[in-house]
Specification:
With 323 residues, this protein is of the alpha+beta class. 20% of the residues lie in helices and 24% in strands. It starts with a strand and ends with a helix.
Length: 323
């Protein structure tokens, strides 16, 4: 076990950068390695804070296991309680950068997604697809419900969802603000192909899905988060995060419910997420590491000032060099 990268250390809080591949907090007291366990090794006071969940200590929020990025921890009970109030007042903002594949008619390919309302979409071509490259922001709103085997995934719930989905949804409307990244150094990425292909996929209107997918990069901002909120919302409008095995059919094609990873050219069968009438997916190539980053935190301090911690430029520079 190695220590996490410390981004900021104050008397009240600690901000660390979590690598992908480890949980933010243990799932139970018997679990081993996690970001929190590494933090507590050097900062035992974080473990002494009483959070909502006994295994979370002073961890103020989580990010997914396969997401890398910023985590905020309270070093004392007063700050934890203060931040709990900030979250309830929706004044604690979290921002993410997502590298996405554009997949037209996504909700027809993946099971359980309601149709997108026109109000949720930001640009349209005459054929009804979203424009590429994207140039305007969008604000996505929905309720959520757990979904699939083991409730590992989630789905948006809107007025277009069925009665069963309506019964299973929560009572909070979640909002994701998505802004396309237009940095000049990334323009070549925006027009590049992802070099992945889905074949033999039929839609309700018998039209095949596009065989190539453009790249789009978004900065997403939320103030009250549901599990997988940003990943699911982006997928809902046809922009699943690259390498996301829960919401991206290209990445899902690499696995099945046994955990097997498929090689290029093999056939993968959907695990209940892909439309059962169109579940054959052939993998051509691509990087299946999830390209999703928690890059910024913004919250008011108790003295009335606004604190912002932002690693966006560092992550974008990393992406421009690696993709």
């Amino acid at each position: 076990m190695y220590p996490l990268s410390i981004v900021e250390d104050s008397a009240d809080y600690l901000v660390v950068y979590k690598p992908r591949g480890i949980h933010s907090a243990p799932l139970s007291k018997s679990d081993g390695d996690s970001a929190l366990s590494r933090i507590v090794t050097s900062y035992p006071e974080v473990g002494n804070v009483q959070g909502k969940n006994p295994v979370e200590g002073g961890l103020i929020h989580r990010i997914d296991k396969e997401t890398e990025g910023l985590l905020l921890c309270a070093k004392n009970q007063d700050f934890y309680d203060y931040m709990d109030v900030c979250q309830k007042k929706s004044v604690f903002f979290k921002e993410y950068i997502a590298v996405c594949d554009y997949i037209p008619r996504y909700s027809e390919l993946m099971v359980g997604f309601p149709p997108c309302s026109e109000g949720a979409l930001f640009e349209r071509e005459e054929n009804g697809f979203l424009n590429i490259p994207v140039s305007k922001p969008m604000i996505l709103k929905s309720f959520f419900r757990p979904y699939g085997p083991g409730r590992k995934a989630v789905r948006p719930v809107t007025s277009g969802s069925g009665k069963y989905a309506e019964m299973k949804k929560g009572d909070v409307l979640y909002i994701t603000e998505c802004i396309p990244v237009m940095d000049d150094s990334l323009q070549s990425m925006k027009t590049a192909k992802s070099h992945a292909k889905i074949s033999d996929v039929a839609h309700k209107d018998d039209e095949a899905i596009s065989s190539h997918f453009d790249t789009a990069i978004f900065k997403a901002r939320i103030y009250r988060g549901y599990r997988h909120q940003v990943r699911c919302h982006l997928a809902w409008v046809g922009y699943p995060v690259r390498g996301d095995v829960l919401y991206n059919p290209i990445a899902l094609a690499k696995t099945d419910n046994t955990g097997k990873i498929y090689d290029e050219g093999e056939t993968a069968i959907g695990t209940g997420h892909i439309n059962q009438d169109s579940d054959k997916v052939y993998v051509e190539s691509g990087d299946f590491e999830m390209l999703f980053y928690a890059v910024a935190l913004e919250f008011p301090l108790r003295d009335g000032s606004l604190k912002r911690i932002d690693l966006s430029s560092r992550v974008l520079q990393k992406l421009s060099c690696s993709l």
